[in-house]
Amino acid sequence: xxxGFGRFRTRFARGVLFVVVAGAGTFIYFTQKDLYPGxxxxxxxxxxxxxxxxxxxxxxxxxxxxxxxxxxxxxxSPRNYFLFSPLLPSVxxxxxxxxxxxxPTRFITRHKKRKVAVYEAEAxxxxxxxxxxxxxxxxxxxxxxxxxxxxxxYLVYAVGAENQTFGIKGVKEYACFLKELKDxxxxxxxxxxxxxxxxxxxxxxxxIERLMHMVVVGGGPTGVEYAGELHDFLIDDLRKWYPxxxxxxxxxxxxxxxxxxxxxxxxxxxxxxxxxxxxxxxxLTRTMxxxxxEKSVVVQDANKxxxxxxxxxxxxxxxxxxREITRNLMAKLPEHQTQRRGLVVDxxxxxxxxxxxxALGDCTATSYAPTAQAASQQGTYLARTFAKMAQAExxxxxxxxxxxxxxxxxxxxxxxxxxKALDLPPFHxxxxxxxxxxxxxxxxxxxxxxxxxxxxxGVATYLFWRSAYVSTLYSARNRTLVILxxxxxxxxxxxxxxx
Length: 499
Ligand code: FAD
Ligand code: NAI
Prior knowledge:
The chain is an alpha/beta fold. Helices cover 40% and strands 22% of the residues. It folds into 3 domains: 4-33; 41-161 and 322-420, FAD/NAD(P)-binding domain (3-Layer(bba) Sandwich), CATH 3.50.50.100; 171-321 and 432-492, FAD/NAD(P)-binding domain, CATH 3.50.50. The strands form 6 sheets. Strands 7-6-5-2-1-8-19-18 form an 8-stranded mixed sheet. It has a 4-stranded parallel sheet with strand order 12-11-10-16. It has a 3-stranded antiparallel sheet with strand order 13-14-15, with no helix packed on it. Strand 1 (48-53), helix 2 and strand 2 form a beta-alpha-beta unit. It is globular, with a radius of gyration of 27 Å. Residues 86, 166, 217-223, 225, 254-257, 262-263, 288-289, 317-320, 369-371, 434-436 line the site of 1,4-dihydronicotinamide adenine dinucleotide (NAI). It comes from Hordeum vulgare subsp. vulgare.
């Protein structure tokens, strides 16, 4: 017969078992429920068609929040997944694997009430007069003329932006960008190519130095985060696996302005610059890249002197510019579209000159910074607007029927409800703060605090940065993969094999 302690031990073990089983069950439920979508309503020709261009931050947040019972939705994008861009710099050195930060768009659309058509294609033209979009399939398997024109009642335009080059010669030929998954992959392969080539027998000292010189152009958050990741790779992995050449690796960040991260507070700029100094990342401020050659960049420094800097890998991160399709759309509405920066929209995100088009995110010229935060809030706002528009449409139909039958109190009440549904508040942006990783397990954060700002930097902020991004990742699957990648790198280091 068991004594008091034995009984306690059995109960404790049962309790632990229960917690483990319940925890595992909850975990499996939340990670797997996306894999079993239910039945959906068919598309209905009587409903209005909403064409969504893009599946980035703006479009995905719109899709996720939209109640699509009243709409036939068509999603068009050249990639068939949502990319969590804030963690993209980590993919360039293998801290994270590419697939950990993407979510297939069909995982999102298969959970909507009504079926959503998803086309992996590039929109090549928008006709705001006839309300159509021309799309082109970009698969290698289709004929070159696989173009289709799709009519819309409403167009949600969220195609983002492309990389700004300022027309500088050689950028597109020789530099790597950092916007899409394929860019991060290209950087990773090119970085390892530089290192392996530098380690090859018989290389001259000069060539080794060139190959091991990694240059980043643009001291905005993209350039800073990439430089930070590169530094971690050098310290954690390169020294271990390439001891003969690791110390030849140099990182240089070139910025035209007097300091990096102009959008962050002064103390965080200083903190970042001093951390970079400690980490031996050379920061060349007031230095403008003028020309890009195959193996060197030509810069003009603060004293207006022209210098040539040899490089092995060049990453170009000098901000955004409008895509060709956006520039063409602006050219079709010259009286209304007067900003070079992007599309002009009103407070309800209706495109100036074409109110059936709603534009959001990086493709627009608004007072908000082109960030994921702004784009996703706009997507949520737009989904609410569409819900109100659907409600107003229904009430209008009801009202017409009522007026025919018997005018009275019911009509009055419906008119009031209709006016309420039509009274759409303008979009209001709520800034939740800015975060950036700067390397060596340090991050910086500018957070709104009452009416002021709270700035912090260091290892604790890095833990906050990690938890903030893990919690905003799209799905439990993404969260699991990202955490596992971090654990994997901590235990085994980054994988230095070049695919
Ligand atoms: P995107 O997310 O770029 O989506 C555009 C979509 O349009 C894509 O799906 C694309 O495939 C599609 N598309 C393109 N051309 C066409 C076409 N012709 N037809 C149809 N579809 C098309 N912001 C933050 O707030 N916090 C961060 O930490 C942060 N980190 C970042 C890190 C990096 C490396 C980068 C590059 C950006 C980062 N940003 C961050 C900025 C953020 O990613 C953008 O502001 C955000 O993606 C804008 O959302 P969007 O929907 O306008 O465009
Ligand atoms: P950016 O526009 O923020 O910065 C580009 C930098 O390049 C500028 O400081 C500019 O002065 C510099 N530059 C331009 N031409 C140059 C030249 N020829 N030579 C040298 N320097 C030159 O661009 P970035 O970093 O790509 O960011 C784009 C947007 O995405 C921003 O709105 C940013 O806030 C957002 N983002 C946010 C992140 C975060 O919050 N952690 C991370 C990455 C991007």
